[in-house]
Structures are given as structure tokens and as C-alpha cells.
Design goal:
The chain is globular. Helix 2 packs parallel to helix 7. The protein is built from 13 helices and 23 strands. It is an alpha+beta fold and 471 residues long. The longest helix has 44 residues. An 8-stranded antiparallel sheet has the order 2-1-15-14-13-12-11-10, sandwiched between helices. It has an 8-stranded antiparallel beta barrel with strand order 16-17-18-19-20-21-22-23. It has 2 domains: 288 residues, DD-peptidase/beta-lactamase superfamily (Beta-lactamase, 3-Layer(aba) Sandwich), CATH 3.40.710.10; 83 residues, Beta Barrel (Lipocalin).
Length: 471
């Protein structure tokens, strides 16, 4: 009897060892594929940034590609600091929720309670956090009216909102429109109820307790938007993604640079490791109470923000890979970043870039982690096609029965055109495949059965989506 028990125990131990070995090998293969994918994106599509991937809080992949300062060839490091743009919104939402926990305010408080002079009635703090307030977009009216080298402050924004009274997008609660204004005003409300400068409130209540040592708000002055240690330069690409320019060297970006002085909707600068510390705190409820975290991460309204199913408070939510992805992207003036957390698998992916090159890479890394097939980025070389062959691509394309985009032939060149009329030039690399001429890693591929189109694929950052060609 004892011999049988020992024998069975040996078998169980052997099975456990084999499973652990198999899982370890599978993870190493995924990490190798992530590295190969990122390296290929760096080589062929100018990816420049930092990547961090963690599983159950443990970092399994971390690497820098490219430069913090392109002109002086200063390489990126783990300590390089990026403007995380709209990823900042979750910190503003957290500051609001901390204020709720302390009895300083309610999500159902009205904007007019704190700013009776602002000419928009019936708006609640809850609506501001969920982009359902209908408030006019601050970037639009500040870009239009601001004419100074000084950075815009939140006080300036409120004064211009009162002075110019731009039209509301809709009545409060009757629509959804992603809006930075609500978050800037939410930051100002936190200041009013706490008696602290918003930057100080967030720093003392979130950054310092979590030892986010490289995370801080930008404090710009006229002509100086580099005030943080290890702050990266940021670059905007030309139309083909081949040359990169500093925003301050592009005249039409003057007002956009000035608006980076606003806090609440953006402005926080951070590193990948510091953002992981923040993400881990949401799992452990170190800063916020569990009830507040659950509210932030729960669908408050159905809405598509970067492909989400819903929006909470400062966070987007999407069901994918039999998991729940809680995430937010952030982009401004060449910075493009993403922080994604998959709750069931307990996986976190952080990608920070300073030359507009993140778009889609985080999703490709997620696909790899969840055992999806991806195509490695590669070099795309243009060939010339006869008009007859080019016109086989012309038509409307649908995804899940909805219009995705059209391909049009304009004077012998192909363009992808979306609903709002935005057109991107497409170039042929074969008789069946087009690639985007803007330097992004996107392609359209036709699969033929003799002369009939059998399948259509849209490929973005290695992930294939099957489309239907409507005509």
C-alpha cells in the first residue's frame, strides 16, 4: 500500500515538474517573440520607446529602444521620463475618489456649486469623469484663441470658457464625447475642497506613498517645457514617418505646446516602472478603498475610447481574450503611450514612446501573451501596379457589418478614406497587398480564388482582422 502511495506521489511530482517546465518554456517563447516583434518594429517602423511587461506583478520583459534625445543620440534608459498625456486622467479620477472617501465632495455635486460663473448648467462631477457633460473641448477653443508664449493654466482655460462661451456638444447626460475640459475642471474642484494645489494633492497622496520617484507634473515657463530630470525630447513625424521634428520647431503647433501647461486631463510625466507601481496599487487597494477602485474600473457608460466597450472613471474597459482589459492610452505632441491591465490573467503592459510610434504595439504584445498569431513587422517596398490591378482594391470595406473605410483611386494613387474624410495614401508591395504610406505598420491584403476575391485582411501591428469588401 505504501509502495503504491509513493509511486503515485512520484508520478504527481513528475507531472508538476513537467507542467512547470512546459509553462516556463512557453513563457520564454512568448518573451522572445515580444522582443523580436519590438526589435523589428524599431528597425522597420521607427519604434522609439520603453516597454515593460509584468505578470502577477513580476516584470517578465523590460527594454528600451532608441533615443531620449535624437539630435544628441542620447539613448533611452529605464529612468527616461515621458509625458503620459491622457493616462493622467486616472490619477485625476483617483484624486476625486480620495476626496469622496474623505467626505469632501460627492460625485453628484454640480459644476456650478464650485464654479457658478461658468455658463453651463446641470453638469455633475460624475458626468465630467465619464465624458457625458457636453462641455466644449478646451483644446479647440484654447488653440483658437490663445496667443501667448506663456503656457496655458487651468485658470486661463476657465477665463476663456467664460469669455468665449463655446457651444456645448449636447445637454448634460444626453451623449458621450471624449472631453479634456471636464478633467481640468475636476482637478480644480479637488483644489477647492482640499485646500491644496492639485499637483501637491496628487504628489502627497499618490506619488509619494507609492514611491513613484520619477513621476511629477510639468511646471513649464514661457519657452521652457523641459523642467523634469531625465525628461525625453518628443518628436512629430512627417507624413511618411521618415523625418522627425520637435513640436516647438513647427509653427502650427505653437498653441498646442502651450496647452501642455494644463493639469487634470494630462501633464503628468512618468516612467514605465512607476506606472507599474500605480497599477499594482489598484490590485492591493493601497491608496484607494476597494469600493472606489471598483467604481473606477466598472463600466459607467457604454463608449468606445480607443476600441473600448465602456468607460469608467478615467479608465476604459474592454472584454477581450476571455478577460477584462482595463486601460488608457495617452498621446500629445509626439508622445504616444498605453497602460493596459488584464484582470483575470493579471498581466500589465506598458509602452511609452516619444515619436508617435506606440500605436498598436501594446495590442500586439497582448496578442502574443494570449497565444494569438502575429506577423512580425517587416520592410515594405513600393512596386508599380497597372490601373486594372490597382482598381481591384477600390471599394468599401466593412468590419462586422459596419463601414470600416473605403479605398479610392485618385489620379492614379490609392487612398484609404474613413468616415470623416481623412485620407491616407496606400502603396502597393505586391499584386495582393497594400501598405500605408505614412510609416505606420498597417496593410490591406486581398486573397484571390482565381479572379474572385475570397478574403480581405486588414493587418495592423501584426494583428490580422478579416474584413468584407462591400463592392
Amino acid at each position: 500500500m505504501r509502495q503504491n502511495l509513493r509511486h503515485n506521489l512520484k508520478i504527481i511530482i513528475l507531472i508538476i515538474v513537467l507542467l512547470l517546465h512546459t509553462n516556463a518554456f512557453a513563457q520564454k517563447s512568448k518573451i522572445a517573440l515580444i522582443n523580436n516583434f519590438a526589435a523589428a518594429k524599431h528597425k522597420y517602423h521607427n519604434f522609439n520607446g520603453n516597454i515593460l511587461v509584468a505578470e502577477k506583478g513580476r516584470i517578465i520583459y523590460r527594454k528600451s529602444f532608441g533615443y531620449a534625445d535624437l539630435k544628441n543620440k542620447k539613448p533611452l534608459t529605464d529612468d527616461s521620463v515621458f509625458n503620459i498625456a491622457s493616462i493622467s486622467k486616472q490619477f485625476t479620477a483617483a484624486a476625486v475618489m480620495l476626496s469622496v472617501e474623505r467626505g469632501l465632495l460627492s460625485l453628484d455635486d454640480s459644476l456650478s456649486k464650485y464654479f457658478p460663473e461658468i455658463p453651463y448648467e446641470g453638469i455633475t462631477l460624475r458626468q465630467m469623469l465619464t465624458h457625458t457633460s457636453g462641455l466644449p473641448e478646451q483644446n479647440e477653443f484654447m488653440f483658437k484663441h490663445w496667443n501667448s508664449d506663456n503656457p496655458v493654466t487651468n485658470k486661463d482655460m476657465v477665463e476663456y470658457l467664460i469669455k468665449y462661451k463655446p457651444e456645448a456638444a449636447f445637454k448634460p447626460g444626453e451623449g458621450f464625447k471624449y472631453c479634456n475640459t471636464g478633467y481640468s475642471l475636476a482637478a480644480m474642484i479637488v483644489e477647492k475642497v482640499s485646500g491644496q494645489k492639485f499637483q501637491d494633492f496628487v504628489t502627497k497622496n499618490i506619488f509619494e506613498p507609492l514611491e513613484m520617484k520619477h513621476t511629477r507634473f510639468l511646471n513649464p515657463t514661457a519657452g521652457n517645457y523641459k523642467t523634469i530630470p531625465n525628461q525625453t525630447e518628443n518628436y512629430i513625424a512627417d507624413t511618411e514617418g521618415k523625418e522627425f521634428f520637435l513640436p516647438q520647431d513647427i509653427p502650427e503647433y505653437k498653441n498646442a505646446v502651450a496647452v501642455t501647461g494644463l493639469v487634470g486631463a494630462g501633464n503628468i510625466h512618468s516612467t514605465a516602472l512607476d506606472l507599474l507601481k500605480w497599477q499594482e496599487s489598484l490590485k492591493t487597494a493601497k491608496i484607494l478603498k476597494r469600493k472606489s477602485i471598483d467604481a473606477m474600473e466598472s463600466p459607467q457608460i457604454k463608449a468606445s475610447v480607443d476600441g473600448s466597450d465602456a468607460y469608467g472613471y478615467g479608465l476604459a474597459i474592454k472584454s477581450i481574450y476571455n478577460d477584462t482589459k482595463i486601460f488608457h492610452n495617452g498621446g500629445t505632441l509626439g508622445y504616444w503611450n498605453s497602460l493596459q491591465h488584464f484582470k483575470n490573467a493579471d498581466r500589465t503592459i506598458i509602452v511609452l514612446t516619444n515619436n508617435e510610434s506606440e500605436k498598436g504595439l501594446t495590442n500586439a504584445i497582448a496578442a502574443i501573451l494570449f497565444d494569438q498569431k502575429v506577423a512580425l513587422p517587416s520592410e515594405h517596398k513600393e512596386i508599380k501596379l497597372p490601373a486594372e490591378q490597382m482598381n481591384k482594391f477600390v471599394g468599401n470595406y466593412e468590419l462586422n457589418g459596419n463601414f470600416a473605410f473605403a479605398v479610392e483611386n485618385r489620379d492614379g494613387k490609392l487612398y484609404r478614406v474613413v468616415k470623416n474624410g481623412d485620407a491616407k495614401e496606400l502603396k502597393a508591395e505586391s499584386k495582393t497587398k497594400l501598405f500605408y504610406g505614412d510609416g505606420t505598420d498597417r496593410q490591406i491584403e486581398l486573397v484571390f480564388d482565381k479572379q474572385t476575391i475570397k478574403q480581405v485582411f486588414f493587418i495592423a501591428d501584426g494583428i490580422k482582422l478579416e474584413l468584407k469588401k462591400a463592392n
